[in-house]
C-alpha cells in the first residue's frame, strides 16, 4: 500500500504530527512524504529518518505563505504523477483546509479525526472516536485515493534512521488558489505552554482551600514543564484566571498527563479533560466522582502530597 | 453586501438518542439546535449588514425539520433562509454535502459566504474549504476577527503558531471561530417575526446536484461498525501513608510520561 | 434549634409585580398572554385558538398576535417533568372531534398495576387503595406531551415564544395588563454583557398564568389581589430517572414505606412510582414532602437508595440511565388553592393554582381541564364584547371550575395529605377513611404547616445512602448533566437566599437540593456559616422556595432540557 504523507514544517523543522503519521504509514506499506514551501527540499531530507522512502518537494513562491489553496494544486499535481493509494495528513489548522479541498478536487473520500490506521484484508481501515468520544467507529473508503486526516498526537514519530531520496516537482496553480494573500505573519509570544498545547497540566480546584493553594500547583507545573489549569469554581471565585479554566465553559485539553488536585470531578470539568492520556487525581474525599474516571487515584491530603511530589520531581533533575 | 451564512443542525449532545415508539425511527425532537459556532457566523454577518447594508441569507442542508433550528438565526435578524432537503441527500459525506451547499450558494451568488467552525466536541468536519474549491473562490478559515469592505475581506487567522492576517478579494468564503464575537440574543420581536420571513426549500436537482452524487449513494467513505471505547485500563488507587508522592512519581515515570 | 423559615428572604407582590415601562414602540402587544407552555397554558392556548378559528370576528379584536405563550425553557417541554399516568378525559375533551387518543404521544393505557409496601428486604403487595386505581389511564411523558401540545397550539394560530421568561406581572389601575419578560445577557454582577438584550413589556388584555409548581408571578398575583387560600402552600420534591431496560415492564408500580421512615417525628411522607414507557424504557421516581426535619434528607439520594431494593433492581439491573430530573409538586391540595382563581385581566390555571391531587399523584389532567375552562370563560367575555379586564368579567371561570369533576376529586382528598403528618400508619388509616367516606370524614381542616417551619435535626440518615458508582447509583453532579443542563455559568444568581445562616440550615439546603447548588461555606462564628451557591447547576425544581429561600425566573433558555421526563 503506497501512502503519501503531507509534512508541514515550521522554522526549518518538520512538524512532529506529520512525522508520526509518516512512521505509521511506513509500518503499513511504502511511505512517501511531501513538503511544500520555502526551503522544502532542504527540510525534506530529515524525513528519511522517520520512515519516508522518498520525499517530494516543491518550493514555488506561491507556496511561501502558509495558505491552504495553493497546496491543493501542488498535491493534486503530485497525486496525479505518483498515484498513491492513500494520502494522509496530521490534523492542523492548515492541513484541515488542504485535505478537505483536496477531497473535493479529486472527488476522493476523506475520513478525519482518525486515531488509528490498519490494513484488513488488504484494505485500509481507519479508527476514529465519534459522538463525543463515546463510541469508536471503524471507517473505510470507496474508490481512491483514500484521504485520511489523523487526530493530533495519535502517533509518535519513530526515528528509524535511513535516508530518503528527495525529488523536486513543479506545479501550476488555479486562478482562485492565489487570490488570498498573507498580509502579516505574526508569532505569538509564549510564556510557558498554553494549556491547549501543553503535554502536562497540573490543575487545581476548590479542594486547594484558598487562592494561595495555587502556588504549590504552579511549582509542580514548573517542575514538570507543564501548564496550570483551573476549575470553573475557583475561576469564579477569582482564584485564577479564566484563560486557564478547563471544562465545559472553559477549554478542552488532552495532555499526556493531567494531575487534578482538589478537584471533585464534576461532569462540567470532566468533559474538558477526559481525553487526557493519563489522569492522576489527588483528593481527600474517597467518594469524589473524579475517582471514577482517573487512572491513578490518590486519596490523601494534597497539601502534603503536592509539595512532596514537586520536591521529588526536582531532585530527579 | 449580500452575505450567505451556511448553518447546520447538529444533534444535541445532551439529549439521549431514542427510538420514537410511534414511528419506530430515531426521535429527533430534542435536536433542533444549530452548531453553536454557526451563531457566531450569523452574528458576524448581521454586524456587517448593520454597518454596510445588504442582506443575510441562511443556507442549510438537512431534513425538513431543520427549518425549526433556522428560526433562531432568523430571529436574530437574518433576512431569509434556504434549506436544501432531499431524501437522496440523507447520509451524504463531505463530498455530497459540499456539492449541495455549493449548488445552493451558486444560486445565491453572495459576496461573502460565512461558516462557523465546529468547536471541540464537533465531529471535525471541514466543509468550507471543499465548498471554496467547488466555487473556485478564496477561503480563509479560523478567523478570530474580520473586516469586509471595498471589495476585500481581511481576517485574522488563528493558527498553532500565532495570528496571520490574510486578505482576499470578494466573493470569498470565510470560516469564523467562536472567538470572533458574542452572538446576540434574539429580541422578542425578532422571535415573533421569524416565522414570517421567507423560507425556501430546495431539492438536490434545484441546486444542480445529481441524486447519485449525494447521499449514501454518492458517499466515498463508509462506517464499517461502531463499538464501545477501550476502557482506560485498571485504575491504581493509593491511600496516602506518607509515600503517595513517591508512588505517583514512580508510576508516572514507568509510563514514560515525564 | 434551627428552622429554615427563620431565614426566609422577604418576598411579596413588590418583587413580582410592576407597571409597564417600555415606550409604545418597544412594547409588544398581544391579545392574550399565557405564561408557561405546560399542559395548562397550552390547553388554554389550544382551546382559545379553536374558538377563535370558529369566530373570526372575535379573533379580529385580539390584534395581530391573538395568543402568545411565553416559555422560559429552550422549547416547550424542556422544563416539564412528571411521572406520569394521566386521566385521559380532559385531553380527549380538548380535542373532541379533531384528534383521537391514538394521536396523542402516549405509551398506551396502564397495562396493569401493583402497589407495594416495602421494607429493606421485602416487598409486600397490597391491593391498590381506592386512590391508586389507574385502569383506563394513559402513561406518558409530560415533556413529550408539552412538545406535542405546543405544535397543536401553533397549528391553531398561537405563537409559542421559547427562551422567554416572565419576570414581572404588569398591573395598572388595579388590572393586570400583561407581563414583563426578563433581560438576557447580563453577567455575574448584573452588568450588561456585549450580547445584552433587555426584556419587553408584553401587553395583553388578558393574562393567563400557567407557571406550574413554582409560580413566581402567581405568588405575586395572590399577594397583590388578596387571593390566598385557607392554608399556605406546601410542596413535595420529586426526583426521577428514565432507564433503558433489558426486558419490558408490564405494569405500573407504586410503593410506600422503605426507604422512608415511618415515625411522624421524621416527617417523611412520600413514595415511589415505576412506570413503563413502551417496551424499552422505564421511569422510576421518588417523591417526598419537604417538611422533613432531617438535615441530611435528600430525595435524590433516597431515590438512589430505593433503587437498591431487590424489587427495583430486578427491573433496572443491566439497563442504562438515559435521563434524570427533579421538580417540586404542590401538595397543599384543596385547602391551599387560592380562594379565587381570577382577578381583573387575570386567570390562574393548573398546578400554579394548586390543582394537584397528591394521593392520586395526578395533576396533568387538572391543568388541561382548567386551561380549557379558562379559555372558554375568556372567550365568553370576548364574545359578549366585554373588556376582559373589567371586574367580574371572568367570574365564569371560577364557577365552571368549581362545577367540574376535577374540583370534586380535589375536594374528596382535601385532608389526605395532611393526615400523613401523623406518620405513615396513622396517616394511612386516616387516608383510607377519607377515601372510603369520599372525603366526608374527618371534618374540619387539618392544619398545613409551611415546609420551612420544621425544626432541623440530624439522625445519621446520610449513612444509609449508597455510594455512587456511575452505572447504577449516581451522584448529583453527573445527574445535573444528564438533565441536559448547560446553563451559562456567568449569569446573575437567580436564587434568593440568605447567604449567612445557621449551620444546620445550610447543611439541610446542601442535602435537599438535587442539583448540588448549595454548599456549606465558611464558619463565621456564633454557629453561623456562609452558603456557597452554584446557580448554573440549578434545574429549577423549586425546592428552595419551600425551605426558606425563593427560586426566581433565571434568564430564558437556562436550566434543564428535559425531553423524556
The global form of chain C is globular
Q: Distance between the terminal alpha carbons of chain C, to the nearest Å? A: 38 Å
Mass-distribution shape of chain A: elongated
Oligomer: heterotrimer
Number of helices of chain A: 8
Strand content of chain A: 25-35%
Helix-strand pattern of chain A, N to C?
Answer: EEEHEHEHEHEEEEEEEEHEHEHEEH
Helix/strand-derived category of chain C reads: alpha+beta
Largest interface: A-B, 86 and 72 residues
**Rounded to an integer, what's the Rg of chain A over CA atoms?**
22 Å
> Which CATH class of the largest domain in chain A applies here?
Alpha Beta
Helix fraction of chain C? 25-40%
Query: Compute the gyration radius of chain C: what is it?
Result: 22 Å
* Main sheet summary of chain A: 7 strands, parallel
Structural class of chain A: alpha/beta
Report the average pLDDT across residues of chain C: 89
Give the number of domains of chain A.
2
Summary keywords:
heterotrimer, A: 317 residues, alpha/beta, Rossmann fold, 27% helix, elongated, B: alpha/beta, nine-stranded mixed sheet, two-stranded antiparallel ribbon, 6 helices
Q: How would you explain this protein's 3D organization?
A:
The complex is a heterotrimer of chains A (317), B (258) and C (565). Chain A is α/β, with parallel strands linked by helices. Chain A contains eight helices and 18 strands. Chain A has helices at residues 16-28, 40-44, 68-82, 93-106, 213-224, 232-236, 267-273, 302-316, and strands at 2-7, 9-10, 13-14, 30-36, 54-58, 86-90, 110-114, 116-120, 123-130, 135-141, 146-150, 165-168, 181-185, 200-204, 227-230, 257-261, 278-283, 296-299. In chain A, the strands form four sheets. Chain A has a seven-stranded parallel sheet, with helices on both faces. Chain A is elongated. The two termini of chain A are 45 Å apart. Chain B is of the alpha/beta class and 258 residues long. In chain B, 27% of the residues lie in helices and 28% in strands. Chain B has a nine-stranded mixed sheet with strand order 9-8-7-10-6-1-4-5-11, with helices on both faces. Chain B has a two-stranded antiparallel ribbon with strand order 2-3. Chain B is globular and about 70 Å long. In chain C, strands 1, 2, 3, 9, 10, 11, 14, 20 and 21 form a nine-stranded mixed sheet that branches. In chain C, strands 7-6-16-17-18-15-19 form a seven-stranded mixed sheet. Chain C is of the alpha+beta class and 565 residues long. Chains in contact: A-B, A-C, B-C. β10 of chain A pairs antiparallel with β12 (221-227) of chain B, so a sheet runs across the interface.
Amino acid at each position: 500500500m503506497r501512502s503519501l504523507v503531507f509534512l508541514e514544517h515550521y522554522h526549518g523543522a518538520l512538524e512532529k504530527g506529520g512525522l508520526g503519521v509518516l512512521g505509521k504509514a511506513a509500518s503499513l506499506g511504502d511511505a512517501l512524504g511531501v513538503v511544500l514551501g520555502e526551503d522544502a527540499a532542504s527540510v525534506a531530507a530529515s524525513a528519511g529518518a522517520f520512515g519516508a522512502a522518498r520525499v517530494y518537494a516543491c518550493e514555488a513562491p506561491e507556496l511561501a505563505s502558509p495558505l491552504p489553496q495553493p497546496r491543493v494544486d501542488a498535491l493534486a499535481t503530485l497525486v496525479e504523477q505518483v498515484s498513491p493509494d492513500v494520502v494522509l495528513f496530521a490534523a492542523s489548522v492548515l492541513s484541515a483546509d488542504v485535505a478537505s479541498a483536496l477531497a473535493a478536487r479529486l472527488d476522493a473520500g476523506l475520513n478525519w479525526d482518525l486515531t488509528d490506521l490498519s490494513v484488513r484484508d488488504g484494505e485500509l481501515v481507519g479508527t476514529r472516536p465519534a459522538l463525543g468520544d463515546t463510541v469508536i467507529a471503524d471507517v473505510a473508503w470507496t474508490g481512491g485515493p483514500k484521504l485520511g486526516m489523523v487526530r493530533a498526537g495519535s502517533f509518535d514519530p519513530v526515528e528509524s534512521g535511513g535516508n530518503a531520496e528527495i525529488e523536486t516537482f513543479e506545479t501550476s496553480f488555479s486562478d482562485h488558489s492565489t487570490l488570498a494573500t498573507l498580509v502579516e505573519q505574526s508569532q505569538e509570544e509564549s510564556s510557558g505552554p498554553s494549556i491547549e498545547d501543553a503535554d502536562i497540566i497540573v490543575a487545581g480546584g476548590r479542594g486547594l482551600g484558598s487562592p494561595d493553594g495555587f502556588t504549590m500547583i504552579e511549582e509542580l507545573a514548573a517542575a514538570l514543564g507543564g501548564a496550570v489549569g483551573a476549575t470553573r469554581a475557583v475561576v469564579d471565585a477569582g482564584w485564577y484566571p479564566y484563560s486557564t479554566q478547563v471544562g465545559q465553559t472553559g477549554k478542552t485539553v488532552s495532555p499526556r498527563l493531567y494531575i487534578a488536585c482538589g478537584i471533585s470531578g464534576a461532569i462540567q470539568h470532566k468533559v474538558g479533560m477526559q481525553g487526557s492520556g493519563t489522569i492522576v487525581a489527588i483528593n481527600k474525599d474517597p467518594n469524589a466522582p473524579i475517582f471514577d474516571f482517573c487512572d491513578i487515584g490518590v486519596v490523601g491530603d494534597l497539601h502534603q502530597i503536592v509539595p512532596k511530589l514537586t520536591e521529588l520531581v526536582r531532585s530527579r533533575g | 453586501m449580500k452575505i450567505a451564512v451556511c448553518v447546520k443542525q447538529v444533534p444535541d449532545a445532551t439529549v439521549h438518542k431514542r427510538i420514537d415508539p410511534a414511528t419506530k425511527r430515531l426521535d429527533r425532537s430534542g435536536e433542533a439546535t444549530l452548531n453553536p459556532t454557526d451563531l457566531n457566523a450569523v452574528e458576524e454577518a448581521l454586524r456587517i449588514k448593520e454597518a454596510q447594508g445588504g442582506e443575510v441569507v441562511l443556507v442549510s442542508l438537512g431534513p425538513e425539520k431543520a427549518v425549526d433550528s433556522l428560526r433562531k438565526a432568523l430571529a436574530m435578524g437574518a433576512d431569509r433562509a434556504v434549506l436544501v432537503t432531499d431524501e437522496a441527500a440523507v447520509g451524504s459525506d463531505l463530498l455530497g454535502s459540499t456539492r449541495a451547499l455549493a449548488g445552493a450558494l451558486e444560486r445565491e451568488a453572495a459576496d461573502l459566504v460565512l461558516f462557523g467552525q465546529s468547536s471541540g466536541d464537533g465531529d471535525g468536519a471541514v466543509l468550507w474549504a471543499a465548498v471554496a474549491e467547488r466555487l473556485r473562490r478564496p477561503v480563509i478559515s479560523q478567523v478570530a476577527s474580520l473586516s469586509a469592505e471595498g471589495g476585500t475581506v481581511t481576517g485574522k487567522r488563528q493558527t498553532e503558531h500565532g495570528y496571520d492576517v490574510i486578505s482576499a478579494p470578494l466573493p470569498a468564503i470565510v470560516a469564523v471561530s467562536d472567538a470572533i464575537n458574542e452572538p446576540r440574543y434574539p429580541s422578542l420581536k425578532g422571535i415573533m417575526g421569524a416565522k414570517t420571513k421567507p423560507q425556501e426549500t430546495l431539492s438536490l436537482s434545484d441546486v444542480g446536484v445529481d441524486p447519485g452524487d449525494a447521499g449514501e449513494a454518492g458517499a466515498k467513505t463508509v462506517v464499517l461498525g461502531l463499538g464501545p471505547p477501550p476502557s482506560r485500563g485498571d485504575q491504581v488507587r493509593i491511600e496516602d501513608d506518607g509515600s503517595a508522592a513517591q508512588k505517583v512519581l514512580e508510576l508516572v515515570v514507568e509510563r514514560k510520561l515525564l | 434549634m434551627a428552622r429554615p423559615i427563620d431565614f426566609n428572604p422577604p418576598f411579596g407582590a413588590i418583587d413580582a409585580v410592576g407597571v409597564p415601562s417600555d415606550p409604545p414602540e418597544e412594547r409588544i402587544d398581544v391579545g392574550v398572554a399565557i405564561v408557561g407552555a405546560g399542559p395548562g397554558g397550552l390547553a388554554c392556548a389550544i382551546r382559545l385558538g379553536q374558538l377563535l378559528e370558529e369566530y373570526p370576528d372575535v379573533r379580529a379584536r385580539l390584534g395581530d398576535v391573538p395568543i402568545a405563550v411565553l416559555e422560559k425553557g429552550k422549547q416547550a417541554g424542556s422544563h416539564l417533568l412528571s411521572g406520569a399516568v394521566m386521566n385521559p378525559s380532559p385531553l380527549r375533551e380538548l380535542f373532541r372531534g379533531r384528534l383521537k387518543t391514538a394521536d396523542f404521544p402516549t405509551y398506551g393505557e396502564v397495562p396493569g398495576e401493583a402497589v407495594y409496601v416495602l421494607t429493606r428486604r421485602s416487598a409486600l403487595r397490597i391491593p391498590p387503595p381506592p386512590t391508586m386505581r389507574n385502569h383506563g389511564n394513559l402513561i406518558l411523558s409530560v415533556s413529550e406531551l408539552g412538545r406535542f401540545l405546543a405544535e397543536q397550539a401553533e397549528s391553531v394560530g398561537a405563537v409559542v415564544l421559547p427562551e422567554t421568561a416572565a419576570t414581572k406581572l404588569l398591573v395598572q389601575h388595579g388590572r393586570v395588563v400583561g407581563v414583563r419578560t426578563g433581560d438576557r445577557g447580563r453577567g455575574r454582577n448584573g452588568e450588561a454583557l456585549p450580547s445584552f438584550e433587555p426584556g419587553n413589556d408584553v401587553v395583553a388584555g388578558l393574562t393567563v398564568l400557567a407557571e406550574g409548581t413554582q409560580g413566581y408571578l402567581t405568588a405575586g398575583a395572590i399577594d397583590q389581589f388578596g387571593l390566598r387560600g385557607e392554608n399556605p402552600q406546601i410542596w413535595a420534591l420529586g426526583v426521577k430517572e428514565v432507564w433503558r431496560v433489558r426486558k419490558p415492564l408490564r405494569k405500573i408500580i407504586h410503593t410506600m414505606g422503605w426507604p422512608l421512615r415511618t415515625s411522624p417525628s421524621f416527617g417523611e411522607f412520600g413514595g415511589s412510582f415505576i412506570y413503563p414507557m413502551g417496551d424499552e424504557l422505564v421511569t422510576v421516581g421518588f417523591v417526598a414532602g419537604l417538611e422533613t426535619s432531617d438535615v441530611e434528607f435528600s430525595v435524590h439520594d433516597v431515590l438512589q437508595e430505593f433503587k437498591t431494593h431487590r424489587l427495583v433492581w430486578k427491573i433496572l439491573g443491566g439497563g442504562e440511565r438515559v435521563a434524570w430530573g427533579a421538580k417540586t409538586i404542590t401538595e397543599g391540595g384543596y385547602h391551599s388553592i387560592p380562594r379565587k382563581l381570577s382577578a381583573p385581566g387575570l386567570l390562574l390555571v393548573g398546578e400554579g393554582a394548586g390543582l394537584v391531587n397528591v394521593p392520586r399523584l395526578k395533576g396533568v389532567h387538572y391543568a388541561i381541564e382548567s386551561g380549557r375552562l379558562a379559555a372558554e370563560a375568556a372567550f365568553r367575555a370576548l364574545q359578549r364584547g366585554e373588556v376582559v379586564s373589567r371586574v367580574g368579567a371572568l367570574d365564569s371561570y371560577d364557577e365552571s371550575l368549581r362545577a367540574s369533576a376535577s374540583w370534586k376529586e380535589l375536594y374528596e382528598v382535601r385532608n389526605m395529605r395532611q393526615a400523613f403528618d401523623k406518620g405513615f400508619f396513622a396517616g394511612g388509616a386516616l387516608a383510607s377513611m377519607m377515601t372510603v367516606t369520599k372525603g366526608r370524614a374527618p371534618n374540619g381542616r387539618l392544619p398545613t404547616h409551611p415546609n420551612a417551619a420544621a425544626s432541623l435535626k440530624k439522625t445519621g440518615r446520610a449513612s444509609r445512602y449508597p455510594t455512587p458508582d456511575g452505572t447504577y447509583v449516581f451522584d448529583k453532579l453527573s445527574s445535573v448533566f444528564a438533565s441536559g443542563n448547560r446553563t451559562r455559568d456567568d449569569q446573575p444568581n437567580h436564587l434568593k437566599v440568605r447567604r449567612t445562616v445557621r449551620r444546620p440550615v445550610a447543611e439541610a439546603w446542601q442535602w435537599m437540593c438535587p442539583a448540588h447548588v448549595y454548599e456549606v461555606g465558611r464558619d463565621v462564628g456564633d454557629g453561623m456559616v456562609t452558603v456557597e451557591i452554584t446557580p448554573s447547576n440549578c434545574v429549577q425544581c423549586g425546592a428552595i422556595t419551600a425551605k426558606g429561600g425563593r427560586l426566581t425566573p433565571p434568564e430564558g433558555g437556562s436550566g434543564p432540557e428535559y425531553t423524556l421526563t
